[in-house]
Amino acid sequence: MAELFRDNLDPNLKLYVEYSNEVWNWIFAQTHYCNDNGDQNVPWPERTVPFIQNALNFWSEEWSGHEDRMVRVVGVQLSWQDVSNRIVFNMETGSFDAFSPAAYFHFSEDGIAAIEGLGEDATDDDVLFWARGGMLENAYEWVKAQHEEIAMELDIPMIYYEGGQHLTPHPFGSDQPYNDALVAAQFHPGMYDLYNEWYDSLRVFIKNEPALLVNFSFIGPTSGKYGTWGLLQNQFTQNAPYDDAPKYKAVTENVFDCSVKVSVEDLSLELSKITIGPNPTDSEIIIETINPGIYNLMIFKENGVVLSQKKFSGYLKTFLPTSGIYFFRILETKTGKVTYRKVVVQK
Predict the structure, then answer these.
(1) Comparing C-alpha atoms, which of 325, 337, 273, 265 is closest to residue 299?
(2) Radius of gyration over every alpha carbon of the chain, rounded to an integer in angstroms
């Protein structure tokens, strides 16, 4: 296979080589293959490393002298940093050129609990709200950790073998009262905004060139049980300007506009414009903003029920009466930017 691609691939194209797909994911047969056929005296996931190493060694040997045409990639698990480290740092030095986590955003545990609490009353707006919370609270932090612990440590690029929304029920593949809301969110205009915000977040970790991110599925059916993965559902009935396909619009626009738009400094500044504290607190919360203007605050209980709504300009002191987990959604009316925070009250 290495010889075939070396001798027949357009030399103007660059080839990315990875051994299999998600050999750390137990729902796939390739994971069980590596686990069952690897050295039983070696712990998992280190047991998978010889399979990855062997494949990349073949490509390195056959492509000697053509290294500039190929990128050797080690796939890792986004949400489990320990697994990623134990694979990457057991590879032979110099035998790979990049590593690749997924770049999905989805509900946090609090988010899925809130959606479950709403049940059949959950709306597409609710889904997008909690999806954004999971994006900021979990997915972005996981990508940041991968970048800091591997990309920066080894000075290699981080690319994304898959990415986008991952909005599925809990447990996966189940019929839930909120399944229809999961599907409806796929066509909500807010999904377009969510994708663009996610891509801008990923650009934080790029230096001087566009990122490589593979969208999982181009055309596919809708499903509240198994996820709606397609950018389009039908290639014949959906046409420009694709107002009924917000994911398609976002992806294609980003494909054709691959400039680096956000720096690490820019993102740090953006996230620090609004401060909420102390957190945890015994009841009192003070919200301060750097930018002047009118802000709308919504406070949610852990089950997704709205506790209160307030308007303020620059400074607000508010109180939470009982112990628990609360979610603050702050909308800057001038720009439309939304900040999401989790607050813990401990009496």
Answers:
(1) 325
(2) 22
242 backbone φψ class: left, alpha, beta (φ>0; ψ -120 to 50): left
Reply yes or no on whether the pLDDT at 239 is more than 60: yes
pLDDT value at 131 more than 80:
yes
CA distance 72 to 118: 46
Q: Is 0.85 surpassed by the pTM of this model?
A: no
Beta strands per DSSP E along the chain: 15-18, 70-75, 98-100, 103-105, 160-165, 213-215, 217-219, 230-232, 274-277, 284-289, 295-301, 306-312, 315-319, 324-332, 338-345
Tell me the pLDDT tens digit for each residue of 262-320. Answer: 433 443 334 447 888 888 898 899 998 877 788 989 887 766 677 888 899 888 999 98
Q: 141 CB contacts (<8 Å, ≥6 apart)?
A: none
Least confident of 100-104, 178-182, 210-214: 210-214
Q: What is the distance in angstroms between the CA of the first residue and the CA of the last residue of the chain? A: 64
CA-based nearest residue to 133, from 340, 306, 295: 340
Tokens linked to 132: 């954004």
The 8-class DSSP code of residue 10 comes to: -
For 150-195, the DSSP string reads: IIHHHT--B-EEEEEE----SSTT---TTHHHHHHHTTSHHHHHHH
- Say whether the peptide bond before residue 246 is cis (omega within 30 degrees of 0): no
Question: Is residue 134 helix, strand or coil?
Answer: helix
Write 45-52 long-range contacts (CB < 8 A, 24+): 45/83, 45/86, 45/87, 46/86, 46/87, 46/90, 48/23, 48/24, 48/87, 49/87, 49/90, 49/91, 51/19, 51/20, 51/23, 52/19, 52/23, 52/87, 52/91
Q: Give the pLDDT confidence score for residue 254 in this predicted structure.
A: 83
Higher pLDDT residue, 200 or 105? 105
Alpha-carbon distances, residue 346 vs 40, 51, 281, 323 (angstroms): 47, 49, 6, 5
For the beta carbon of residue 153, count every other beta carbon within 10 angstroms. 12
In this structure, what DSSP letter does residue 338 have?
Answer: E
